Amino acid sequence: MFEALTEKLSQTFRALAGRARLTEANIADAVKEIRRALLEADVSYKVAKEFTESVKAKAIGQEVIKSVTPTQLFVKILYDELVRLLGERQEGLKFASVPPTVFMVVGLNGAGKTTFSAKLALYLKRRGRAPFLIAADVYRPAAMEQLAVLADKIEVPFYGENTPSDVIKLIERGIAASKQQAREIIIIDTAGRQTPDKELMEELRKIELAYKPMEVLLVLDAMTGQDAVTTAQAFREAVSVSGFILSKMDGDARGGAALSLRAATALPIKFIGTGEKPEDLDPFYPDRIASRILGMGDIVSFVEKAQAQYDAEKAKKLQEKLQKNKFDLEDMLEQLRTLRKMGNIKDLLSMIPGFSQVKEADIDEKTFKHIEAIILSMTPEERRNPHIINGSRRRRIAAGSGTSLQEVNQLLREFEQMRKLLRSFNKLQAQGRDIRRAHPIFSKKK
Q1: What's the CA gap between 156 and 54, in Å, rounded?
Q2: What pLDDT, on the 0 to 100 scale, is given for residue 8?
Q3: 3-class secondary structure, 20
Q4: Which of 70, 200, 378, 428 has its CA 20 to 30 A from that of 95?
Q5: pLDDT at 157 over 80
Q6: How far apart are CA 213 and CA 339, in angstroms?
């Protein structure tokens, strides 16, 4: 996400490094590079020009105090302007004072409307709401079946018809079904087209007039860049779009759509899709996105993802095992799986300050799969007591996991180093000493 833009901006910051102060000349050079980076990210020329002019105006004349460098000051100005461009604050969903609340999901075919409808239902369900899905796309082949499968997967009630004759009547019957089940939120997955045509817009207009949704959420493919703005403007002429959903953000290294939409429409981005799984949906926080674009990470989102996978009982048991020096390969496997549930490893590292510039080549997802395969090829006894794994067992594990003997040996060596480090931590903690001193980097004599 934003990888190409982040790299371009980082090059600009490096060019400023070492300058004693901000001058009109070096600010002009930096702003020129930023504008070029934004245009390459498929941000509209008008938005890029207005943004960089605002950055330039704020940077010129700024006094650099002793506690910060010129680069740090410039990054702060750029951060503030990015937050402003992206919308300043996160804007959540609006709910009706008297249930049910109706959400209408619109967009072109292929943007991800149906997937988002299910993701939104799961998002609301996990926050104590009672959502209900209605399949109102009666034109796309298997659209109803797709939503039915997703609804079953996330265990949310669903309504659809195989041969509907009237979309308005279909939705009416769906709403009646939702009331019978006492559902408080209705999500209508509407039809789309390859392009915004007259018939589609007329149908959407009729649905909005008939059911007066609290939110009309327009799903846009983030990878279409500034074309997303054109699509947004076409839908806004037909229905009262209240906010945008940017799908496929995990595949968008540029960021043109995210950076152009708010400035062009004055409407908020409410959610971003960050993967294919039902749980891969995040609220859009302008400050966090700005931080990630500038390579500063997003530790708040990282912590939230970790908390979503947090199991207090398991954490307590793991702590007890660590204190008793009984950490084994089964524990290692469980921690690895918890980490992978949080999402793509590269994306997770990009949220941590200092790791945002990690390259794709530096992270091999296959390594994690190999580790899992190796541990699963062990017997329960071997996982609990790795010291019994002799040469013949190692060869059997390598063959069973489809890996090499060298990979098995490396995993066991690294696991043993981890256990030694944990034992050192526990020993120092028992003595009331600083656990950092157990690590070789701190224990070296200066």
Answers
A1: 47
A2: 85
A3: coil
A4: 200
A5: yes
A6: 38
Percent of the chain with pLDDT over 70: 78
| High-pLDDT (> 90) share of the chain, % | 46
Contact criterion met (CB below 8 Å) for 347 and 1: yes
Question: Which stretches of 10-130 are assigned E, i.e. beta strand?
Answer: 101-107
pLDDT greater at residue 283 or residue 313: 283
Q: Say how far apart CA 294 and CA 7 lie, in whole Å.
A: 9
Alpha carbon of residue 375 to chain centroid = 29
How far apart are alpha carbons 214 and 28 in whole angstroms?
A: 45
| CA atoms 281, 308, 357, 268: torsion sign | positive
368: β partners:
none
Domain 311-443 in CATH 3.10.580.10: no
Asked if residue 213 lies in contact with residue 102, where contact means CB atoms within 8 angstroms, the answer is yes
Comparing CA positions, the residue from 159, 205, 152, 148 lying closest to residue 186 is 159
Q: Which amino acid is at 49?
A: K
Structure tokens at 3: 């990888």
For CATH 1.20.120.140, the residue range(s) in the chain are: 3-86
Amino acid at 385: N
Half-sphere exposure (CA, 13 Å, Cβ side) for 446?
1
Summarised one tens digit per residue, pLDDT across range 174-217 is: 999 999 999 999 999 999 988 888 999 999 999 999 999 999 99
SS3 287: helix
Residue ranges of the chain that CATH labels 3.40.50.300: 101-296
Distance between CA 274 and CA 281 in Å, rounded?
A: 6
Domain 101-296 has CATH 3.20.20.70: no
User: Scanning the structure block, which residue is given the tokens 């050079």?
Assistant: 29
Tens-digit pLDDT profile for residues 128-155: 999 999 999 988 888 899 999 999 999 9
- The half-sphere exposure of 154 on its side-chain side, counting CA atoms within 13 A, is 28
Taking the model in full, what pTM does it have?
Answer: 0.69
Residue 125 · residue 158 · CB < 8 Å: no
| Residue 302 in this model has a pLDDT that exceeds 60 | no
Buried/exposed 50-67: b ≥16 CB within 10 Å, e otherwise: ebbebbbebbeeeebeee
Q: Is 280 helix (H, G, I), strand (E, B) or coil?
A: coil
- Res 347 pLDDT > 80: no
Query: How is residue 91 written in tokens?
Result: 């804007």
| Alpha carbon distance 37, 51 (integer Å) | 12
